[in-house]
Amino acid sequence: SIQTDSNSSRTLQQPDSTVPMEAKRLAAEKAVAHVESGMVVGLGTGSTASWAIKALGEKVRAGLEIRAVASSVASEQLAQEVGIPVTDFSAFSFIDVTIDGADEVDAGVNLIKGGGGALVREKILAYNSRHFIVVVDETKLVDTLGEFPLPVEIIPFAAELTLGQLSSLGCLTSIRQQDGKDFITDNSNLIADCNFPTITAPSSLHDRLARIPGVVESGLFLQPMVSRLIVGYQDGRIED
Ligand code: 5RP
Hints:
The chain is α/β, with parallel strands linked by helices. Helix content is 26%, strand content 25%. Helix 1 crosses helix 2. The longest helix is centred in the first third of the chain and has 15 residues. The protein is globular. The relative contact order is 0.19. Ribulose-5-phosphate (5RP) binds next to helix 2 and helix 4.
């Protein structure tokens, strides 16, 4: 049977002491080495992307000349704090390189993203980037997607109906909560977290999600979107 639990409380953005921060930092800093002067750079969202923004800020202060676009208000604020010039999208027609994290990466380098609730803007940046570099720590690697509930951005209008349609795809759904209230995205929408037993056919799921009115985007980022995957390991190794 299909259950819809719209009351569950999730706090995906809370710091987690078990998260291997050092591995995230290593991967993020490796990615920043691929940024050159003159580039337009897309800034991801989340703790790993934040390490990349901080590392980029250091390089900018040392003379690297870039223009950046941000995938969230939070990342834009961090970029400004560390001295990265953030530009309006109307200033150019493509992004040279976007650096962003992920919640899960499968063996075919398909991703689940959206743990931080920024998946729509993140996907727009990734889609419009010549190079999309994904930076993760080893805990994000999986054989098959789906252990992490798939975030889906939906509009608030008739959200209960949209949740029902999502549930009919075979998942348990809940509207993401933060501080006891609905989590609201930078686009003034809601996030439905969709807990599938497993996602064995991400491409067909992506198509079925896209057909549901009220769904803005899902957190499935499918190949060939990723140009480069950089994995940081807790023992200090980096795979690039
Ligand atoms: C935000 C995202 C993040 O990239 C994802 O949640 C990974 O976050 P972190 O680097 O903090 O583990 O998709 O919407």
